[in-house]
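help with this record:
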Amino acid sequence: MRLDELNCVILCGGKSSRMGQDKSKLKIKNETLIEFQVRKMSQWFKNVYVSTKEDKFDQKFTIIKDVSEFQIYSPMLALYSILSFFKNEFVFILSVDSPNISENEILKMFAFINENYKIVVAQTPSYKHPLCGFYHSSLANTCKEFFKKNEQKIGFLFSKVKTKFVKFENENAFLNLNFYEEYEKFKRELK
């Protein structure tokens, strides 16, 4: 199996409450953050999908909507909706607000998906990154069970499913743009 035979899904269905505005629509040079991420990930993956509660974009992205019967914001609901869309395959999941991920980090994680793991995610010295890694679609029902028990954090899966944490030293590669100051700093460093 090769990386370019797999699919990528970019998550952008959150509230962006800490940012104060929709992160996916933040401008980076002449494009939005979601356009930036889709363009970048399209270099390495077969298809790139966008996960969201509703199609809020002017561009034509292939959208995977959260299951509509539930009207809450939940990473577990998003993961359930995504994994239900695919059949018997690994999918790379990335949050829209992680713009520094490169092919090097993805390939290092990809090296573990042929083993017996169902989840392969990045881990830096300070944090496990549940929204940056590979998930097997067979986990959809497990996600649904957690969701129905009101266990909404993806980290709950790690104790129930064979998970590989791939260690990285470079925290900057896993930068999350949670606050406006972080976004401004990222834009300055892109120049």
